[in-house]
Amino acid sequence: MSFFKALSCRLALGIALGMGVAGCATLEPSSPALMAPKAKPGAAALGAGDTIRVETERPSLLAGDFTLSETGHVTLADARIVALATRHGGEAAGILAALDPGAGLVTVTLVKPAPVYVYGEVARIGYHPFAEGLTIAGVIENAGGITYRAERDRVFVSKRGSRVERPVPANSAEAVEPGDALRVPEAFF
């Protein structure tokens, strides 16, 4: 028996005896879980506000649904905080698998992308669900349209994690991304 198998067996035996259970299981890390698959071309990176589902081959505290915080972190069931922002699903799975090699294969799936935030001169300020193919004009429509005080020609868009706004025509068919923020300015009379 190799040194690591013997150590694993002793650790498992110590845990089992502490729990009143007899026996010893050999714990071997699952090497495929530690290898992060390459991201699919065009796949979006995870970011603040995204909800992910972590599934494991064997029971683990890694498993569950988690929402990335404003700083791009998730808090696992055992209170560990892990940074996953800017990672793709396969990369995130590799990071998590390294935290619990006994979990076996770990998969990370985007369950719900971050909502789009709309504020300023719209009927319904706040978060609106993101949907594939959603445009700037569509977001404004989902927010109940612009108010009578709104500037009708342009809105300002900032990308997730950025405070830099760029002007875009209000009726733009430009697609929005998860976590984008749209500001509809007030018109100057």
Task: Describe the protein in words.
By secondary structure, the chain is α+β, with helices and mostly antiparallel strands. Helix content is 20%, strand content 23%. The strands form 3 sheets. The protein has a 5-stranded mixed beta sheet with strand order 7-6-10-8-9, with helices on one face. The chain is elongated and about 65 Å long. The termini are far apart. The model is unreliable at 1-42 (pLDDT under 50).
SSE blueprint and pairings:
Elements: H1 3-18, H2 31-34, E1 51-56, E2 64-67, E3 73-75, E4 81-83, H3 89-99, E5 106-112, E6 116-120, E7 126-128, H4 136-142, E8 154-158, E9 166-169, E10 181-184
What distinguishing features does this structure have?
20% helix; 189 residues; single chain; five-stranded mixed β-sheet; three-stranded antiparallel β-sheet; 4 helices; disordered N terminus; alpha+beta
Helix content: 10-25%
Q: How would a textbook summarize the main sheet?
A: 5 strands, mixed
The termini sit apart by 82 Å
* Overall body shape: elongated
Unreliable spans are 1-42
Secondary structure category: alpha+beta
**Strand tally:** 10
The portion of residues forming beta strands comes to 15-25%
- Round the mean pLDDT to the nearest integer and report it: 78
* Gyration radius, rounded: 23 Å
Q: Reading side by side through the largest sheet, how are the strands ordered? A: 7-6-10-8-9
Order of helices and strands: HHEEEEHEEEHEEE
Q: Count helical runs.
A: 4
